[in-house]
């Protein structure tokens, strides 16, 4: 979709972000309009509440990758 739709090319978003947005919209549409999909949606989103704590560790662990460590005398 990123390579076919012009406005997604201009946004310069990674394909994973676009796919995540499409997935979230699909889950919300299933929850609202598909009868009997509550069990599927509950199973698909069961572990999402644990993700923020895990993902914030990844963000802070990679924050200073590529930055030179100053020498001990400078610290």
Task: Kindly describe this structure.
There is one protein chain. The protein is an all-alpha fold and 75 residues long. The chain has one domain (6-61). The protein has helices at 6-11, 15-33, 38-44, 51-61. The radius of gyration is 20 Å and the shape is flat. 0% of the residues are buried. The mean pLDDT is 87.
Give the % helix. 55-70%
Which class best fits the helix and strand makeup? mainly alpha
Q: In sequence order, what are the helices and strands, one letter per element?
A: HHHH
Q: Whole-Å distance between the termini? A: 48 Å
Would you tell me the overall average pLDDT? 87
Strand content: under 5%
Largest sheet: none
Total domains: 1
- Give Rg in angstroms: 20 Å
As residue ranges, the low-confidence spans are none
